[in-house]
Structure formats: structure tokens, C-alpha cells
Amino acid sequence: MKQKFLPLALLVTAILPATAQQVSYEEYDLDNGLHVILHKDNTAPVITTAVMYHVGSKDEDPERTGFAHFFEHLLFEGTKNIERGQWFKIVTANGGQNNANTTQDRTYYYEVFPSNNLELGLWMESERMLHPVINQTGVETQNEVVKEEKRMRMDNQPYGQFATALFENLFDKHPYRWPIIGSMQHLDAAKLDEFLAFNDKFYVPNNAVLVVAGDLDTEKTKKMIRDYFGPIPRGKDIVRETFEETPITQVKKARFEDPNIQIPAILTAYRTPSMKERDAYVLDMISSILSDGKSSRLYKKLVDEEKKAMEVGAFNYALEDYGAYIIYALPLGGTSLDVLVAEIDEEVGKLQNELISERDYEKLQNKFESQFVNANSSIEGIANSLARYYMLYGDTKLINEEIDIYRSVTREDIREVARKYLNPNQRLLLEYVPEESENN
Fold first, then answer.
1. How many other C-beta atoms can be found within 10 angstroms of the C-beta atom of residue 171?
2. Are residues 289 and 146 part of one domain?
3. I need a labelling partner for 415 at 20 to 30 A (CA). Which of 14, 36, 83, 435 fits?
4. Looking at the domain assignment, is residue 173 inside a domain?
5. Rounded mean pLDDT for each run of 10 residues along the chain, 440 residues in total
6. To 10 degrees, what angle do helices 337-353 and 411-421 make?
7. Same structural domain for residues 217 and 258?
């Protein structure tokens, strides 16, 4: 149940060219609205059961932030038929492993078992959905767990407030502006009835997708799913509020002091479109050009050749409603943050004004081909992809077709998208610096 925060580097390096293989699947709906996706692969006696709920930190009350991440923990407390503290013991005793994670847009639970324990995995997830025990004891226990997680991963971790500082300044209206882990004060103030209401609203079959992937018998699996999940009552239809941000037309400047660092960082962030938009795919490719590996433009220039930065990176953090395109650098020696910004802008400017070479374009396509294949090289990866494409993109077929979007991106597209989104007047400029002592 590790919380996923934005790291200082997101480098996904594909090392071998590969040919994308088709992932076969079947999908259907139960009467209660639960969407089911089955992927059969009998090459190994392993099965993954996974449930993704369409609820993340963006679905929270601004005065009760952190609920979605809190539930990532709380729904392991126990159920009507699984005693408190027994969940993980049952899984490990049956040769399995499990985990969960939360983002701004969704919460994901999964188990991996030997395939002869498929029924156990389905029963446990149906128990989580139908019979969770949500009481004061569990709330108080997980409250302390979440607080300790925040201390370890954010408060006492160098650059641990990076995502918080960035998003609270990049977004003005959208709930993406608060951190996934939320406010400890909000969690402390929440009453038990509020947790119960949150569960009743979001953790219902018509707000979820169930994926079963691996060594399965299709008809037997369908029967078990019908038996365990079919009786779960449908929840009320969820009406989601929409938030429209005013475009950034002049640079936004912000400063954040972190007591856990000695070396400052400069961050430039641009508000970008939804992950579902084609431009988001182009921005992924721009990230690869700028900072994916030692031969990338920013690394080669600032770290390798000019030795002005000890670390530099660019990545597209695409989400369901909006995205954030982020470029950061940590200076080396006496290099100023202003110099780093100027150097970064110079490289971005080249993308805006010049087409990348045919050779670089071919290398880029090979990288994304490999990344696409690697993402679906395991049963766990396929299960996650199937759930994500259905839930967040509304198109399960992307598990086989997304690579075609990347293939369709031209050198001209790269130049035009860089021109469209990565301009100085459209960004947040965040100085992330050591905390100043009282004596200064």
C-alpha cells in the first residue's frame, strides 16, 4: 500500500526493440453495474484478481482531503467474514501477494495467487466491496499509519514536498491542487459517519471494474464472479463535479522552503491536457527527447558536457482531467537557478523551432515500442493496463491500440505541441530551496 508521490526522476528506458503482441480479453457488465474484464493466459499457473474504483483524491471534499488514500489502507482492516488483522495472513498463507495504490483519479487493489486460489481472490475482493468493517477502531489505527507514512515519505524526506508545492501552485480550482495523502487535520476532524458515507458513495460495483487475468477457465470464472459479485447492491449513480482552470497566460512564480535539503531545485511546470488527448502522447515523447537517458538533450548538455546540473529531468504527468508537464534541475557548484532555467528554455526552444532528426525520430519510435511491450509483459501488468484503459480512458482496446497513437506522431507534431504548451508565459516557475535559518 505504498503511496506514490512524484519522484525527482521518472526514467523509463527501453533497451530492446520488440514487436507488440495482441492481448486477448473479454468484457461484460453485471446487472449491478460492475464491469468485468477477463484475460486468459494459461502459460503459467498464476492468477491476478484486481479491482479498480473510480475514486481518487480529486473526488474529496476540500475540507476532508485524504479520504481516498485513507481508504486504500482502511479497506484492509477486515470484513464481516475476515477478522481484523487477518487479510494479509490469509493471502500469504495461500501463496499469494497483494497490494493497493491511490492516485488523484482512482484506487487500485489486487492479489496475485496460484491459479488454484482464484476463488479465494474473488471472494476476498467481493468481501471488501460488500462487507467492509468500518469502525472507530479501524479509523484510529489507520489514522496513525497514514500519519507515519506522511512523516516518512514527505515531512522527513528530502524533496518530499515536491509534488505538494508544485500542484498547489499549478492548479487554482481543480482538486488536483491538494496532495493525494491529504491533510492530517482533515482526517483528525472527520467523524465515523463521514467515512461510512464515503464508502457507500464510491466503493460500489457501478463505480468499479474487476479484472481477472491469468490461468483461468472462462466459464467457471464467470460463474464465480456471478456468485460472489452479483448479489452486491448497485450504488447510487455518481455525479461528478467538473472544474475548469483559467489558462495560464503569464508566468506564475512560487517559492517553497524544505528543511530536509541542502541543494535547491528549480521546477518549471506547465498545465497540459487530459491523458486521453493525443497531445498528451506527444508530450510523453518530448519528455523522452529531453531527459530519457544519458544521451537525452538536457542530461547531455547540463550534466555531461557543461556540468551545470547534478540532476535534470522532464516528464509528462498526465491525469484524467488535466496534466502537468514538469522540468526540474538541481544545480552543480555555483550555477544559479536562473542559469538553469535559461539553459532548459534553450533546449525547449530548439524543439519548438527545429524538427528532430530522422535518426532521433526512429530511435524515439523504437523506445516507445519497447516500453509498450514491456508494460504488458506480465500478467500483473496486463491486469493493471486493462483496468486503467477501461476506467480512465473509457477504451479497453487501447491495450492493443495505444502504440498506434505513438506511431502516428510525426516530427512536425512534436514541434507543434512544444510550441503549443511549453512557453514561458504558460508556466509555473517554482524555486524549491533549503529552509532559511532564523539567524539568516
1. 19
2. no
3. 14
4. yes
5. 41 37 94 98 97 98 97 97 96 97 98 98 98 97 95 94 96 98 96 98 98 98 98 96 95 96 97 97 97 93 96 96 98 96 97 97 95 90 97 97 96 98 97 78
6. 140
7. no
